[in-house]
């Protein structure tokens, strides 16, 4: 057994299941374990912008250079000429994020260009709000990256010439392009430009390029699978979009995310023109009865749908989707009533994401809703045994008293969800606020006991989840927040719009962008595992022979890594 625990194959399997703090502990077991686990801490590194008082937390240059060859994903938040050699030694880079905000000269792009030059393994580059116009040099350098297939830019400024170079770059080998609030200067779209390899295209709130030319961009992507389009400015040429969808220009396009100004009848036209829809996202649109009629022919292929903040979407519509779409894996909507839920069983037994506010209205007119009504809903949810994301309260429910939301308590039937063993995210927003403290604590106790895979619990931090208070006013059990942390569950505070909450220092926040559609990145030759985002920023230096110095170095490095 002892020999097995030093085999690289066994240690590799162990390492895949450990977090960074566990890996640090494992590195201290023996030399073999340190040799195996230390490179894992360096797979992703962020060179952070630190305050002067915190600069001592930064790994020294010698340590960086020693481990540069382990780094696969690099985030650059600070530019320092002394680090140029370190960046050049990161020869195994797959992914680079350039996120430098505080710069005092325009040479920033030239220095970044020198960093990524000759990095032949680069497959993903992210540029996030760098406050200087992009230059020819960096565009030409990115164009020389032979394996670059993902490019994400945000709030990037491009002049006329640079826009042309940017588009030429995108037309080479890119399979995914995300342009967010970028400023273009595009007088004419090059007639010969075809984005042959493009599979996933996101054009969000771009300026300097008309809506019509954005559609022209879409029409030049013959192998596109997914199109994400967001803009509140400009008129959508629905006829042109429908022609692109129905004319065979993008025959493989099966995923549409549209956050643009379109009416119910226009959405219906788009859905009628699309040959096949698997993923549909239309939040904050006028989706209504006409759109619903056009959507029905896509029910057999529909896998993901997002109808959040759509005021014309009714509970019977949501129920019809759940009971008709056998292949559905994800659904988001505003409300679903118990009276509709009990009408028909759901066909989508493989659902993985359920994000709908549930209303349990007592049709008899009694003041108190029978507990049996809540249990009926929980029993139906308990049948979705593949769920890993569950939210049962919408933001509108959390911000208004006009509805009768589901009650979250063991008495109401929460224990019917013990079957959801794959759950990693659960949100009840403000629903625990109406509970007595002891009831809220029992909910938390039940959660940590039955949902062993849960990573995030979202709720408000009012009395319902804080602690169990005795008759004498003293705490009789540990704080619920501590109980969650002890079981490795992150608490995410939900702050309802329109309500004023104190900002507690002990609250961990959930990143709302964390729920990403990984299938949007899938393609031949593209492995999502290569682009894992790690939660640490570098390893500990155990080079010192002095035990006290090692302990101090570990403490300081843990702070830098965000683990303390």
What is this structure's SSE topology?
Elements (H helix, E strand, L loop, with lengths): L7 H8 L4 H7 L4 H11 L2 E4 L13 H7 L5 E4 L7 H5 L6 E4 L9 H9 L7 E5 L7 H8 L6 E5 L5 H11 L5 E5 L19 E5 L6 H9 L6 E6 L6 H9 L8 E6 L3 H10 L5 E3 L7 H7 L8 E3 L8 H10 L5 E8 H4 L11 E7 L11 H12 L6 E3 L3 H4 L26 E5 L7 H14 L5 E4 L3 H4 L13 H7 L3 E4 L53 H15 L3
Parallel strand pairs: 1-2, 2-3, 3-4, 4-5, 5-6, 6-7, 7-8, 8-9, 9-10, 10-11, 11-12, 12-13, 13-14, 14-15, 15-16, 16-17
Roughly how many Å is the radius of gyration? 26 Å
Largest sheet properties? 17 strands, parallel
Rough outline: globular
As residue ranges, the low-confidence spans are: 499-564
CATH class of one domain: Alpha Beta
Distance separating the two termini: 33 Å
Provide the helix percentage.
Answer: 25-40%
Organism: Mortierella hygrophila
InterPro entries: LRR_dom_sf (IPR032675)
Protein name: F-box domain-containing protein
GO biological process, one term: SCF-dependent proteasomal ubiquitin-dependent protein catabolic process
